[in-house]
Amino acid sequence: MPRRNDINHILIIGSGPIIIGQACEFDYSGAQACKALREEGYRVSLVNSNPATIMTDPEFADATYVEPLTVESVRKIIEKESPDALLPTLGGQTGLNLSLELFHAGILDEFGVEMIGAKPEAIKKGEDRELFKQAMLEIGLDVALSFSVTSFEDGHDCISKLGDFPIILRPAFTLGGTGGGIAYNREEFDEMLRMGLDASPINQVLVEECLLGWKEYEMEVMRDYKDQCVVICSIENFDPMGVHTGDSITVAPAMTLSDKEYQLMRDASFACIREIGVETGGSNIQFATDPKTGRMVVIEMNPRVSRSSALASKATGFPIAKFAAKLAVGYSLDELQNDVTKETPACFEPSIDYVVTKIPRFTFEKFPEADSTLTSAMKSVGEAMAIGRTFKESFQKALRSLEIGLQGFEAGKLSEIDLDSSLIRAGVKRPSAERPQYLYCAYESGMTAEEISQKSGIDPWFTEQLSEIYSLESILKETTLDGVDYELMRSAKEFGFSDRQLADFWSCEPPAVKERRESLGIHTTFRLVDTCAAEFEAFTPYFYSSYGDENEIIRSSNKKIMILGGGPNRIGQGIEFDYCCVHASFALREAGFETVMVNSNPETVSTDYDVSDRLYFEPLTLEDVLEIYHQEKCDGAIVQYGGQTPLNLASGLEKAGVNVIGTSPESIDLAEDREKFKQILNQLGLKQPDNETALRPEDAKDAAARIGYPVLLRPSFVLGGRGMFIVYDENELEKVVKEAFAVAPGKPVLLDKFLEEAIELDVDCISDGETTVVGGMLQHIEFAGVHSGDAAMVLPPHELAKEMIDEVRQASHDLAKALGVIGLMNIQFAIKGGELFLIEVNPRASRTIPFVSKAIGVPLAKLGARVMAGAKLKDLGFTEEVIPKHWAIKESVFPFSRFPGSPIVLTPEMRSTGEVMGQDEDFGIAFAKTQMAAKPSLPLEGNVFLSVKDSDKEKALLVARGLSDLGFSFYSTEGTAAFLQEHGIEAESVLRISEGRPNVADLIKNGKIHLVINTPLGLIPRRDENGIRSEAVLHGVPVITTLGSAFAALDGIRSLKDRNFSVKSLQDYSRS
Questions:
Q1: Measured between alpha carbons, how far is 32 from 958 in angstroms, rounded to an integer?
Q2: What's the pLDDT tens digit per position in 441-487?
Q3: Fewest CB within 10 angstroms: 403, 410, 500, 554, which?
Q4: How far apart are CA 453 and CA 239, in angstroms?
């Protein structure tokens, strides 16, 4: 059946801000769906609150709404746009749950909107734990012994029925295992059950027998309206059951299933998708098997495009989201052509002749108090994927791709610790981010593969593979560069050892290894990802590296530019940089260049095979990048768009003869060199806070004394504020100075006089060497001291005089000229006492570029790429600054609920995982929209808990008066309550957590507090303060920790009480 002609207009709901469990893989799926539907002639409306995504670019949909993902907001969009259909399966759990809420609220029926791709009944059957369990039993599939509970009493009744602990808890309709976990005793069970019931939108938790140690598999499956079903990819978890699949190392295809087991699992997958009733599109089904008995159970199903769908798409070259969108509008799999082969239909199951390994990336260093044990609740913030001809090769490449200092399978930082056998065995048993390094240490200590499997639960096939890597390494270390022969070198490459690793074994430099390897006739070759194990010719140039096979690179004499991506997502370097890389590719292709994308992140749009002319799924190391650059005969490379990862390679690339286009690596380094940069500022007449550089912890103490406290400590050459601290005295300095130096070993630590209560400003510029244009000035809503990635920001500035804005603009132009900027530049200023201070300059793309581009309606990253390739801004038609007529506000989203015990506070170190955008002609409404989008929303009535440090009390009084006038009541700790009462505001005194019961935490738990305003007393919130904030986060109560945000919240509440908010598309904003 061809496309449906009874519908013309389709609404797609995105997944909102990047959070743990729901990252940029849904930007990839949403962007694919928009392209697929528009090429079929449908009008597409899109709603998503995340400005950092490619899918929210105005050219991807006919009407793009960067608005809160709430029932009220989407109702207004439906009323305005009148879509015929809603596609709910591409926006992760957020999009799916919101679609169901719209259905149950009667809004879809009211406006005649049909849900396509998955019907409400199928979604409910797949997501409701009890309905799913009964459905599986009805079709003869085994499930774990479990009970669905909706109350504490039900939960306790189930404990005896399940036998003994441990017990696993899985809340319904949640993502990334939110609110769930493994309980080993009654106390943990009670805590997790409470969290799970709170986390589930329908207050339902599945209490299940724990299958710890079982093997876990995933099947990515598609079905069409003809009931044709295909398995796109089988995926096996390296870690046994008990670790969330998003946190586990995963391998595709499944390595340890026999053909019979695979066929049984395939048949079960098809039976499952049919019974649940997913009519068309993709689903992800998870299985577990008992390694002792072979018993197979169905764990759960996602009746939508899932997190693993992006991995499966990149692993096979099969575009799941694109085909899911086409199936939803009436096509069948046999009517869709495989893009890669141009010959086979989509109903041919992909077949691959290589191995794919995905390893998650964690940032526990940002949350040091949190438990780093991996459980069924997801904690990773990103992932790297690698492709190799063997598991060994892809595993070592994936470890290199993580960018955590590993060259491959090795001990890493554990080599610096004196580990005894008990610590090694504990590290092998405990699932953690460091477990691969502990496995290496276990082989080193003499443990066998069999012993490691028994201790860890990891399948013996995998431990034997790692044992073989370790054994070969031992042989390699016993030889020399001159002594290595062809067979040994060939084996080293088949096992995934890089030239860098071999150079370390043989005490030489990597170029010497490369020369020796090539003299032995072993060259790097690039293979195509072709979906069909080389049975048909592939037409999409999507490559991975290997050795000794036929080189499948397709030669071209066209001018080529390489774009280096950002690697795995992490806090401080995420989707915003991928956005810039994708725009660079679009812009350069339009200008007639061929683009070569290099990245290792399977979640991203940049690693979609049709974004660039060539895609290389490779680690972002100097060795790997240079090989691609020289084999492709590139004419230049862009390193300024992928965040710190490619910038760290810039000088090495330039030394190796790479033409780094745009701002030169020398200029980038100049901005980091304190002394040289100071000279430039003196010439320009620009001020900096007093500052010094320290090369050792001892020097920092003397430097701080000369500058005078408070002091900002900042390691050089890092992103995301890693190791940044504000210290108020020598005692605080001594506590943190070693940590600051440990972040970037061998690099200096910068010390700045901290400007308390200064207004901070981010400025994004573009320059072609002749013309400089300010893209946007963003004023931080919080005072100085909050990392720019965590700060709420408003564009245009809402509190600055015209004279100051003119001064900022002139300083930005002068800096661009002095640094020789060709492309994008980000500058951070602080304003105190009417004086302008320069904090830092980064001559590269910043994380605010997507937000600014959407606010002003100009694609800055595209223009930057064109300028870097030689174009002039006057020829591109952008020579005048665009100042929007509305307010655009960016707010950050934090993962505090995933890391119980970590400080809930905004500091110079970035901790947010994502962002949202609010826009309106009214400042208060724009800010209120950001809170609706980031969740929880601002309350319009109720009780406020207000407790602030003494220095904030005068300003907090203004906020309290405003809230009191709006009808709010107050609870405060003794000191703040007395202060409010002195000034005529009624406030009830309440005990701190440490002072007894009932206290403020009890009030929060009992639903008596609707807003918390609590500013910290020092560098880290005290235990009491953090306890209050943790309870508020857990119970969905808004927490405000800075006065700047408190004033903005007051404006927001006032505006919402005064009038209802409206919605407006980006296209309408650019026309107005």
A1: 48
A2: 999 999 999 999 999 999 999 999 999 999 999 999 999 999 999 99
A3: 554
A4: 11
- Residue 1066 neighbours by CB distance under 10 Å: 23
CA–CA separation, 266 vs 274, rounded Å?
Answer: 13
Cβ neighbours of residue 156 under 8 Å, at least 6 residues apart?
none
How far, in Å, are 237, 451, 638, 1034 from residue 183 at the CA level?
A: 22, 26, 49, 18
CB-based contact 689:755 (threshold 8 Å): yes
- Give 289-351 as a DSSP string: E-TTT--EEEEEEESS--HHHHHHHHHHS--HHHHHHHHHTT--GGGSBPTTTSSSBTTSPPB
Query: What are the strands of the beta sheet with 887-893, ordered from one edge?
Result: 835-842, 822-832, 759-768, 772-783, 793-795, 887-893, 914-920
- The amino acid at residue 464 is E
Select from 545, 508, 507 the least CA-distant residue to 621.
545
Q: Which two tokens stand for residue 682?
A: 């003196």
* Phi, psi (deg, nearest 5) at residue 950: -55, -40
pLDDT confidence of 902, banded at 50, 70, 90? confident
Q: Give the separation between CA 756 and CA 832, rounded to whole angstroms.
A: 8
Burial of 293 per CB tally in 10 Å (0-12, 13-18, 19+): exposed
Amino acid at 613: D
Pairing mode of beta strands 560-564, 594-599? parallel
Residue with tokens 């015990």: 901
- Are the beta carbons of 1069 and 919 closer than 8 angstroms? yes
The whole-model pTM stands at: 0.94
Which residues are 793's β-sheet partners? 780, 890
Q: Which uninterrupted H or E stretch holds 677?
A: helix 674-684
* 3 state DSSP class of 581: helix
The residue type found at 1024 is D
- The b/e string for 872-903 (b: 16+ C-beta within 10 A; e otherwise) is ebeebebeebeebebbbbbbbbbbbbbbeebb
